[in-house]
Design goal:
With about 180 residues, the chain is of the alpha/beta class. It has helices spanning about 15-25, 60-80, 100-110, 120-125, 150-160, 170-180; strands at about 5-10, 30-35, 50, 85-95, 115-120, 135-145, 165.
């Protein structure tokens, strides 16, 4: 087996895997290396589910969330399966706080639909919540979540088609060969 790579990505979590996939799509010979098995539970991005939300005080993150939806839809098309579920969302914050007002400004500037809801209205709509009177809510029609197991099941083989994933047993040999080039 040949270990001739242009790029080696260390860490097969969410960011490393995404970097490896896009490098490979761009034509680079990529090795993706992680110290644990693919889909392990020891990284910062492990867990059963992930959420995509728009409510950020920084407009750049709102734009990233919009781009994330597009990328999820591309991945769904590539594996012919639904990977994310879209639902409504409610984010709470202190009325008048810089962060909460920043979220409102970012959502408005980026033309993301939302509704500002006062605490008494939140409790009327969501009886299970007991909200302090100094809080308000941002309700949006669109938030999404993905389940980790579904993504790994559907995307694992697709990923391997794009990126060569090395086991730890082959790591030192691959690095030696790559560094000796």
């Amino acid at each position: 087996m040949s270990y001739d790579f242009e790029t080696i990505v260390i860490g097969a979590g969410a960011m490393g895997t995404a970097a490896a996939v896009y490098l490979a799509k761009a034509g680079s010979q990529v090795a993706l290396i992680d110290q644990f098995h693919f889909g392990h539970d020891r990284g910062s991005s492990h867990g059963e589910s992930r959420i995509i939300r728009y409510s950020y005080a920084d407009r750049r993150y709102v734009r990233l969330a919009r781009a994330a939806y597009q990328l999820w839809h591309e991945m769904e098309a590539a594996v012919s399966a639904r990977l994310i579920t879209t639902a409504g969302g409610l984010d709470l914050g202190f009325a008048g706080s810089a962060d909460f007002e920043g979220c409102i400004a970012s959502l408005t500037a980026e033309r993301v639909a939302f509704e500002l809801i006062e605490s008494c209205e939140i409790e009327a709509r969501f009886a299970q919540l007991n909200v302090d009177s100094d809080k308000e809510g941002l309700s949006r029609l669109r938030q999404a979540y993905s389940t980790r197991n579904a993504v790994l099941r559907r995307c694992g083989l697709w990923l391997v088609a794009w990126v060569f994933t090395l086991s730890v047993a082959n790591l030192l040999r691959a690095l030696q060969l790559w560094l000796a080039r």
